[in-house]
Amino acid sequence: MNILSLFVVIPALMLLGLWIARNLNQVRGVMVAGSTLLLGLSAWLTWDFMQLRAAGNTDAMVYTDSIVWFEPLNIAYSVGVDGISVVMLLLSSIIVFTGTFASWQLKPMTKEYFLWFTLLSTGVYGFFICTDLFTMFMFYEVALIPMYLLIGVWGSGNKEYAAMKLTLMLMGGSALIILGLVGIYFFNGATTMNILDIAHNNCIPADIQNVLFPFVFIGFGVLGALFPFHTWSPIGHGCAPTSVSMLHAGVLMKLGGYGCFRIAMFLLPSAANELAWIFLILTTISVVYGAFSACVQTDLKFINAYSSVSHCGLVLFALLMMTKTACTGAILQMLSHGLMTALFFALIGMIYGRTHARDIRKLGGLMKIMPFLSVGYVIAGLANLGLPGFSGFIAEMTIFVGSFENADTFHRCCTIIACTSIVVTAVYILRTVGFILFEKVADPHYETLTDATWDERFTVACLIFCVAALGSFPLWASNVIDGAVGNILNVVSL
Which residues, at least 6 apart from 112, have a Cβ–Cβ distance to it below 8 Å? Predict the structure, then answer.
């Protein structure tokens, strides 16, 4: 068995173990064992990939394997990873591992919740390892479908509406994607669905590419919170349970940016160069709009949700700049935002579980009552606004430097406008932190509340460590990503 297939096999075994489990301790045991194994596997894969590259291996994809699945349509279970896939697998494993502990106390129907949570993670892992268009799309759908139940059943607030809106909009995006993928397959000669083969052939006429590109880019852009298709994101985040928000914002939204880069731009390079300016305008709006919208929110989850719109917009913005530095920054931003947002949502869930409030006006003085959780939130906020030493600074600095490498006025104006989001981000983060740190205790009842439990402390500590480690030692990640970005841009820039 190919080593990459374990990323699908292990979650499948976890699903079997969860189904067999008869009590809460057994359910927790299965989740901890499975998520730890996945984290160890992804860490080993990252290390081994770095060793392969250091030894001189320059293959576009490594650990490749292919098994014919449906020969009439040339569908195969094809797997392989490059630097981008490797770091995305590592990010996913960290979020699944910490999300398990973040949901340690979840009730009711803990077993059923973890079943759907594991199925969601299966789709995410499968999407990142596959190199066949059809199997990628299949895993993409596997990742999306559980969201409806996870939000609709275990969510809070107006959860039914949120689940329905999220599902309908993402299914609409999926419809656009499948139309684009069928077009790519047909106009490439209908001989292969392998991404590398299609990119190598590069025989889709330019006028056809111009038609297909918007379908694929917008389809994936819906999941990447591209303006004006972002409206599902705030309400979805606002009503989702803690670990689902962590996986949703931390990993699932990254499928959008990954798909835009790996499929839309890589397989349709002529259209990417021709139409990039249109989507660059939309992504610039996403970056600024998300930041300004976060400023007027008072709900902790909605503040972070609109912040995610801004930061995910920044990923697509950087990819469309099509410079190596900017695209490397985009992947670093995926990593950084995934970790930061997971930390934010974990802390928000822990605070809400005690206070039953998410309105910052009702959460004054938490530092006096819950110092560990409050300090964790302050650290997450500082990372989000791009303080040096944390992952956000490295990612955003790389993006803006790379974007400015484009010498024309249009690209530089877009870059300058996007840069304003940094100042706006500081406004809503410092405003929220100010309430937590300096205000008087809003409700006398809060004085009786307890600080974080051991499982919560472990979750927060792990995520803070990852955010600080990536910010302090970013070179390894940059080196892993660099070659993969270069291979894709070599095709896009032809």
Answer: none
